[in-house]
Amino acid sequence: MTAVKIRNLSRSKPRIVITGGCGFIGSNLANALAARGEEVIALDAMVRDGAQENACWLKTRWRDRVEVMSLDVCDRDAIRSVIGECRAVLHLAGQVAVTTSLDDPLADFATNALGTLHVLECLRLHNPAAPLIFASTNKVYGQVTRENELARHGRRYQPIVERLSQGVDETAPLDLYSPYGCSKGAADQYVHDYARVFGLRTVVLRMSCIYGDRQFGNEDQGWLAHFMIKALRNEPITIYGDGYQVRDVLFIDDAVNAWLAALDRIDRVAGCVFNLGGGPENAVSLIEAIARIEALCGDRPPLHYSDWRTGDQPWYVSDIGAITSALDWSPRVSPAAGLERLAVWIGRRFSGGAPAAELHGAAV
Question: Considering 141, 157, 177, 180, which one is annotated as catalytic?
């Protein structure tokens, strides 16, 4: 694909910077902000599958309202001028897979922990009034449950202790597991601490499983999209573990609404840490999700089973009470409805033919 050209535009209105702005969540945030009249800089290292395509989609859709910049948050000098003049930062850039962090812990740390510190220092030194919202992860909580706190009911694991009846809340102790958990946990705590110590207006969002349009899922990240792609191609799906592990899932539109609500209410929520997921009402096991995908695609994909992977959580569900109360927000899209919408996008994008123009975008 033709590389996206970077334009240096002179603006009088401060723009919103989205690091990782051409990723799955970042591109959807950029689209939503542009739709409501904001001018956006989508800053991205362009190393992940789909980043160039998402960049082209944004430029085709919004032209000069979204500027794409190919920059890495590890390059402190390069990002200083961008972040030093912006209205806000939505920080999503990062290494996103436990498996990749096991292969190269130093690179994982450099992107997730040190890259986040570079962003924070740019704000502290040059633009301390600008809000920062950070994409953390449920992996900072580690395994969450002990073996005797779960039981299998039907096709899923469920907790048998009262403290987990509504999910894991923000008071749960951090238990950083895997290099990825450590690097994201360090970044999570730096973002929170820069609010307490330096007075920056930051919010941490510990996200569970977000899924939806523009997600190029693979075996290491974006499991619902990965399963759907495999099913539509009638290719085997590998289940690591027994398939009864549970996650709460959140459709991308609901996630975007939460991010924008946090930005709009930054004076109320600065310094806060929130879980962001589907909550107990939107929890599914891997096997249950595959059954839904089978119903949508018409055929059951071949399943292969393998050993549990390092850092896998048998059960994780977010308690979303705090973010619901603070932002007057709650999930609206059920897993059934969300998977239907995901199937439409993936069916058109990954059907084997050339992507439709409105999905793929044109090279800029």
Answer: 180
